[in-house]
Amino acid sequence: MRVTVHRKAHFNAAHRLYNKSWDDSKNEATFGKCNNPYYHGHNYELITSVTGEIDPETGYVMDMKVLKDIIKEEVEDPFDHKNLNEQVEDFFELNPTAENIAVVIWNKIKKRLGDKFELEITLYETPRNFVTYKGE
Ligand code: NI
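^ thats the input. predicted complex w/ nickel (II) ion below
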């Protein structure tokens, strides 16, 4: 039986969206408030969803304490209260949209989980705007 377990996490981070090959007016027109050169913050809500077989010995898909620690080490510690553009290497050359942040998080957590689990990342940038990524 394949079951999906979900863990919620949270981080606050600042970003600025822009494409350095565009001029200021195209960046402003495309990214609006998120193009503010002085940066701005979001309260990101992260849902990490792991699908796998129930281990007959433990009854778990995976130990949630282990998942919690992976999320803390890979996402909360490096991203929380950071300026993503300036302080997080993954975004030095990558626009820190919710889409790109979700892909970066998926890659980091997937590396820790290995091949026996499927992973889906859901990332809320605002209570109404969220993205999902499952490595496809
Ligand atoms: Ni923004």
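The beta strands are 2-15, 40-53, 82-83, 118-124, 130-133.
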